[in-house]
Amino acid sequence: MSGLATNYQVCIAGTGSYVPEKVMTNEDLAELVQTSDEWIFSRTGIRERRIAAEGEYTSHMASNAARKALEQAGLAAEDVQLIIVATITPDTLTPATACYVQQQLGASSAVAFDISAACSGFLYAMKICKRMISDGAFENALIIGAEKLSAFVNWEDRTTCVLFGDGAGAAVLRRAEKGEGAIVATEMGTDGNLTHLLNIPGGGSALPITQSNVGDHLATLAMQGKEVFKHAVTRMKQAAEKVIERAELKSEDIACVIPHQANLRIIDAIADRLSVPEGRVFVNLDKYGNTSAAAVAIALDEAHRSGAFKRGDHIVLVVFGAGLTWAAACVRW
Ligand code: UT7
Q1: CATH class of 182-332
Q2: In the chain, ranges of CATH 3.40.47.10 domains
Q3: What does the alpha-carbon distance between residue 177 and residue 181 come to, in Å, rounded to a whole number?
Q4: Ligand 1, atom nearest to 263 Cα
Q5: CA proximity to 101, closest of 177, 93, 111
Q6: pLDDT 10s digits, 125-179
Q7: 300 lines ligand 1 (CB under 6 A)
């Protein structure tokens, strides 16, 4: 590796996704907590979500999504140089889930680590890898958003358990050849003053799970939904606007907007504020609910495979999550 400063373009060479087989519908949830399909669908846009099987871990879902992305990119696992898994539901607190994925894929040459940025993790990983490839440190990278949120949901709390699901999405990034697409602009932000709005309070060093608090659901997701909703709309709109502006485009130039899949009302509010032409916003949360870091990655793969955009089109990815964190990317496909 030379010490010369470089600035390679970085493209997305392949995408993949995986969701577990088991479907949990809103009607199924109405048997667990006091809720209804009518409430869940009208407030969120969610109809059903996927739930990982017993013995199916975040790493397994991540590896399944990664294999599809590698296949599409025509990249052999042993040639992968860097793996980043974005997750808040790792297999174990340590080692990183990315290490299990490296082993499962047989990607023995890859450096592998996790990042924790909640629902924003996949785009944080994209930005990190873009920089590491563009400066010449790596030629390719595998980024994965993967979550087994069903293991961290309080199944007795109707205000949260109806929202989340399990799954994984992946993308292969690599140095672009002349004439290929590129990640054109990126944006990331964090507001650590608002950590209390969405968190898993227990199970870390601040509040370990002990025999006396084990029944208190401390290691499950807690959210002040209304507050999070307001910040999500503002921050995602601003982040999307920034990358569109940096790419020297207008919202009508964007072929497809792929937002974090948390709530259809949030997605509609952003589309409206950005004045994105009708039918250009990709939505799949009706099928999967909110899969945190996996959501935008699964949506990217489904949008790509369904022909929602084509070579040469500009797309915008935009996310928001606990932290609070947010991020966006404008990609020329
Ligand atoms: O991925 C990270 C980012 N996360 C998000 O972006 C989530 C953002 N927040 C949201 O999507 C929404 O705030 C929620 C979907 C979580 C909640 O929707 P809301 O319109 O803000 O409802 P709410 O929390 O104000 O609750 C309204 C009512 C309450 O009853 P009262 O106090 O009005 O009598 C709740 O107790 O709905 C009740 N409620 C439910 N009823 C039936 C809350 N959850 C349920 C439920 N089924 N599952």
Answers
A1: alpha beta
A2: 10-175, 182-332
A3: 8
A4: 11
A5: 111
A6: 999 999 999 999 999 999 999 999 999 999 999 999 999 999 999 999 999 999 8
A7: no
